[in-house]
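Board work, copied verbatim: DUF4331 domain-containing protein
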Amino acid sequence: MMLGLSLLAVSGLILVAADHVDAPSVTGNAADITDMYTFQGQETSNLVFAVNTQGLLSPNATAAASFNENVMIEINIDNTGDNVEDLVIQAIKKGDKMYFFGPYAPSTTGTSSSIKTSAASGSVAISKYGATPVTSTENGMKFFAGPRDDPFFFDLGQFQAILGGTASGFNNPGTDTFAGSNVLSVVVEVPKSMLGTAASLNVWAETKKKQ
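↓ predict structure ↓
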């Protein structure tokens, strides 16, 4: 496991965890998770999971950036409140497509994972930078994989000024440090009925390298 991000996701609310700077072994490559979002879909019976990787991509770098066939993106879902994944949704690149598995109950939990091929849920062609985004719908789920504008807003300069004692708080509006930079995103929209009956979910994402 290269990185994990955790958050509490309550149906109907938008919640996010973000982390744009990591250890050198993962920063800037396919294992680097920048942020994760969980929110109710336009169809209110669905829940959307979005995992962004490879942050701070310039427009020039975005065209060359790619997902790695040896790195799996795994969304973990705890629907019993014990902070152990009860369901997983896995995404892995093969060729020019992203293949998805789950949600299903994993045979092992924690830092090691395997893919249950019989739980395949769909695939989507990986969108190209500057081209029309490609989505697919299979088995009641919707899928996307490809470059997107980094949606996370953070005023790094003002934050540093606060830490340095030259400012007492953030400006409104602030300056978006990430404006003009991109990420590679994996987005899955899932019917809530596939996630159990819990009123709230604990959700976190990991990237895991093939051993």
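The chain is about 5% helix and 45% strand.
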